[in-house]
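Technical note accompanying the year-one report. For the benefit of new consortium partners, we illustrate the data format agreed upon in the data management plan: each record pairs a sequence with a structure-token string. No post-processing was applied to the example shown here.
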Amino acid sequence: MNAQPSGAAFDVVLLAHVACVLVGLATVAASTATAVRLRRLLGTAVAVPEAIVRYMKPGVNWAGRLIYGIPVFGVVLLAMSHGAYSFRDDWVMSGLAIFVVVALVAEGLLWPAERRAAETLAARTQVADAPSDADRGDADLGRDAKIMVWAGSGTVVLLLVGTALMVAQP
């Protein structure tokens, strides 16, 4: 095994790798927390707070997509390690497998549900005079918020497990 990699360039790439993890964790946790709050409010007569409406603006969650920097910078770190780390290391392959699951859950469940919920909430706040549409919107919001809670929670757990694995490097 080669010596532990060092140098300014390696440290900068490592910081970028870690920053992608932290931003990914923060955005997924914020999405999950917002979904939890939205689910609690849907069964009540309380109006959805402006903060949730602002957070749930329709559009792509670009900050969340920074998770794709995790494997990109990870591969760069492998290349810069001069053989200290490689794809033959079980912890590297396990981390990559965890990331694949994170990406599949985020792209397949979390972000589509977040996008649908944002669109439904935006439509609901624009047209509040049709009660039957509002009831259907609440059911859709409830379903999407539930998906967001479960997918977001799973994604947070997987990101934390992957982080622990990368730190421990067993």
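Partners are asked to follow this layout when depositing records. Residues 57 and 118 are 6 Å apart (CA to CA).
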